[in-house]
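The pair is listed for reference:
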Amino acid sequence: MAENKFDFSEEETLKNDSVEKSKEAVKQDAKGLFKSIRTFLSELLDFREDTDRDATIKAIEGDIPFKGATAWILICSIFVASVGLNANSTAVVIGAMLISPLMGPILGVGMSIAINDIDTLRKSLVNLATMIGLSLATAFLFFWLFPLSEDTSELLGRTRPDIRDVLIAFFGGLALIIARTKKGTIA
């Protein structure tokens, strides 16, 4: 038999096996990399172990009642917001939002719906309605004493909400509830 100089079948088979092994090694490395990334992100974003369910419920229930100092803080924040709207000052309006105690009953409504607590829901809704009524009366009194000479852009901006306002409210509320569930938080 004559030897064929162009017979590469054994070399090609070895080369193909080597390529297949390399491909398999790359696939395994990629699977390991994706698994490592998934594990890292899971540990990074998981906040379940850093929460205190009972303390969170107790803290939210403690912020629901509306009397005494809470009423006066609300009245002051409404006056500050009204001055900010009258003076066309975004910073003042935001400052009033930060000191307003309205979030207590709002969080109470959300929590009571989430855990199916009808008594807390009823208490939260009554307090929220009372706070809204006092807010409207306070704002009415302010603008009766100091009427607007013209519509300000700050006031008009609050009358035409769009999707950005919804996103701000949603993610702001989400951040607040995550902060409230964290152990040892003051939010």
Notes: Residues 105 and 124 are 5 Å apart (CA to CA).
